[in-house]
Design a protein that fits this description.
- 33% of the residues lie in helices and 24% in strands.
- Strands 3, 4, 5, 6, 7, 14 and 15 form a seven-stranded mixed beta sheet that branches. Strands 10-9-8-11-12-13 form a six-stranded parallel beta sheet, with helices on both faces. Strands 1-2 form a two-stranded antiparallel ribbon.
- It contains nine helices and 15 strands.
- The protein folds into two domains: 2-99 and 292-320, Quinone Oxidoreductase, Chain A, domain 1, CATH 3.90.180; 115-265, NAD(P)-binding Rossmann-like Domain (Rossmann fold, 3-Layer(aba) Sandwich), CATH 3.40.50.
Length: 322
């Protein structure tokens, strides 16, 4: 079969022939309809992600919209390595077979499920805790995950969404979706003061951090600088989701003593498979009904090298057959 093949951790996938997947118990053969090139796909392929199997040659790709042999159009993933979803055929787990809602665009689903669920899951959990969402801060709002997080937060009733980033076009897209934006300069003190000013007297109930590194440090400063209302006693939940800006960030001890804040991570291993699977059809319906918009750029599988090189802010590259 034809597939995108990666022969080395720092290489670029090439279009070529790869052995067909073997059909094992509990799996079924499906043909690719669309698959997104997400940041986690690149990280796993590079061998730098904590869940990477570190074996090459391999086919990248973690999730897909595919058509089964019985004609069903499904969303699936969890392909056994060295196979991935950037291939004509794959052996998908029968237990992870989510049929697309009527009218759903396969490209939108393929491009939006992974980045969208990264914020949808913690937003849902936080809303259950508080019954309603107040102010949500998004660090890294200019990427696809951040842009979808803005839409997700408002769809769940957030009162305010504040987004930070450096890319002007990405900030504009977030602002068009009613987010209040803060342009980061790279100077921790300046950025922290700017975020604190935007907070005003309202403490965030949830912080979704897609970048970590210096932007996280600026957010920590902002939480220290801000003068929140004395009556605002809501715990601040800080969720570390990605680390595009750096693998480490300095956390002031004084912040932990002066604010009611809990800092935790969200990623592979931090949420149960049951929790994720319960929300997959919910979020697919959100995409199908166009209640969230997923900007995409489509590439045929034969142009995988070009697709791999494309990394537009706020637009997800999606691979389709051809």
């Amino acid at each position: 079969m034809k597939a995108a093949i990666l022969n080395a951790p720092d290489g670029t996938p090439t279009y070529g022939d790869f052995p067909d997947p073997k059909l094992t118990e509990g799996r079924q053969i499906a043909t690719m309809v669309a698959a997104g090139i997400h940041p986690i796909v690149r990280a796993l392929a590079s061998g730098k992600h904590y869940a990477s199997k570190g074996a090459w040659p391999m086919i990248p790709g973690i999730d897909t919209v595919a058509r089964t042999e019985d004609g069903a159009l499904i969303y699936s993933g969890f392909i056994d390595p060295p196979y991935g979803t950037f291939a004509e055929r794959m052996a998908v787990p029968a237990a992870m077979r989510f049929e697309l809602p009527d009218g759903a665009d396969p490209v939108q689903v393929a491009g939006g499920m992974n980045p969208g669920l990264s914020s949808w899951l913690p937003l849902i959990a936080r809303k259950k805790e508080l019954e309603k969402l107040g102010t949500v801060l998004i660090l890294g709002v200019t990427g696809m995950a951040g842009l979808l997080a803005v839409q997700n937060a408002f769809s769940l009733g957030a009162e305010r969404v504040i987004g930070t980033g450096r890319n002007a076009e990405g900030l504009l897209q977030a602002a068009k979706r009613q987010a209040e934006t803060v342009t980061l300069t790279g100077d921790r003190q300046t950025d922290g003061a700017a975020i604190a000013k935007t907070f005003g007297s309202n403490a965030p109930c949830l912080i979704l951090d897609f970048v970590w590194g210096e932007p996280a440090e600026a957010a920590f400063d902002a939480l220290s600088y801000a003068e929140f209302k004395a009556t605002d006693n809501v715990d601040i939940a800080y969720l570390e989701i990605g680390s595009m800006a750096g693998a480490e960030a300095s956390l002031p001890a004084s912040l932990l003593r002066s604010r009611r804040i809990r800092i935790s991570g969200s990623g592979l291993g931090s949420a149960s498979i049951a929790e994720i699977m319960a929300q997959v059809p919910v979020y697919m319906k959100l995409i199908a009904e166009r209640r969230v918009e997923v900007p995409t750029r489509v590439f045929p599988l034969s142009k995988i090298a070009e697709a791999w090189a494309s990394n537009e802010s706020g637009r997800r590259s999606v691979v389709v057959p051809g």
